[in-house]
Amino acid sequence: MLRNALGKTFRFLGYTVQYGCIAHCAFEYLGGIVVCSGPSMEPTIQNSDIVFSENLSRHFYCIRKGDVVIVKSPNDPKSNICKRVIGLEGDKVCTSNPSDFLKSHSYVPKGHVWLEGDNLRNSTDSRCYGPVPYGLIRGRICFKIWPLNDFGFLRASPNGHRFLDD
């Protein structure tokens, strides 16, 4: 009787570990569901919108300008942020706020990206903390899941004029 109970317990633990490993790999390498919070990506992504984030792009270095990404926060490594990629390594980017009279520009260093929220007036982004290392990117948002009336691919950036092709 004890042998039978121990056998069932160890089988259960074995299956739990196996399925846990599969789930971990799926969420780490394939993608997952993310609930976004905060006003920095409005109007593209509203507070409490639910999106699908795929993680393969970051592993294959397929992140492009205009993509919306989930990134480990440079200010707080325990939290993730959602921002749009404005510049890749070597790109010239506008580093000043939209309200600044004199515009300043800089180049994104090797191995980094320049991130900005779509809501420029209410976003803490690369204009505050500088270029972000590529290694902090967790995934790329593919499409919005919730609310259902907004289901589908994300809109283009309302700040497309900030992308420089120099």
Automatic annotation (TrEMBL):
**InterPro entries given in the database record:** LexA/Signal_pep-like_sf, Mito_IMP1_subunit, Pept_S26A_signal_pept_1, Peptidase_S26
What are the GO BP annotations of this UniProt entry? protein processing involved in protein targeting to mitochondrion; signal peptide processing
Keyword set, alphabetical order:
Hydrolase, Membrane, Mitochondrion, Mitochondrion inner membrane, Protease
Active site, renumbered: S40, K83
Peptidase S26 domain location is: 16-97, 103-146
Q: Report the EC code(s) recorded for this entry.
A: 3.4.21.-
Name a GO CC annotation attached to this entry: mitochondrial inner membrane peptidase complex
Q: Under the GO molecular function aspect, what terms does this record hold?
A: serine-type endopeptidase activity
Keyword check for Membrane, yes or no: yes
Which Gene3D superfamilies does this one have? Umud Fragment, subunit A (2.10.109.10)
Q: Which domain of life is it from?
A: Eukaryota
Complex and partners = Heterodimer of 2 subunits, IMMPL1 and IMMPL2.
The record's similarity note reads: Belongs to the peptidase S26 family. IMP1 subfamily.
Q: What is this protein called?
A: Mitochondrial inner membrane protease subunit
